[in-house]
Amino acid sequence: MRENLIFLEFKARDRGSEETMRKICIFGVNHKYQLENPIHRVFRQHLCELIKDHRVDTILEEGTGLAPKACVEVLANTLGVQWRNVDPSREQRELIGDAASSSPYDTFQDLNFHECREWVWAVRASAAVIDSGLLVCGICHVFSLAGKLCWLGFEVETHVYGPRRDDDLY
Prior knowledge:
Elements: H1 2-9, E1 23-29, H2 31-35, H3 41-53, E2 58-61, H4 71-79, E3 82-85, H5 90-96, H6 111-128, E4 132-138, H7 142-151, E5 155-161
Parallel strand pairs: 1-4, 1-5, 2-3, 2-4
Helix pairs in contact: 1-6, 6-7
């Protein structure tokens, strides 16, 4: 079933040559920043800087479970940039299956579940990004997702935005 979820959605473009290589910037964050409303001032500043510097045409987000019109989507709308939630819906996640839901350990993470989710994100990103994208996701996904996107032919840049000493969120 996992494979069906990925391949039914596979609309990825050709991997392309270096001359036409699409770019994607992965912005790994603590999910608390995605939940802030209004958007955290410094978080917004970093997003705007990356969007401008990378000439982003599409903002993608690990967004299942976020409120409708959460802060990153609102920012995208304000800037006139296309926004997409690339995360599988709750129903799609059930098709994937998450062994962590039946584990006696609250710290257990199902690697297969997260691998499948990241492939869905990568394929959806490939279908959505025209020239340059920004993908906002949890910090723990940055490097494994970067490898998947490189495999699909993207030039990838990674950023991690964690709590800062001057951050009033913590």
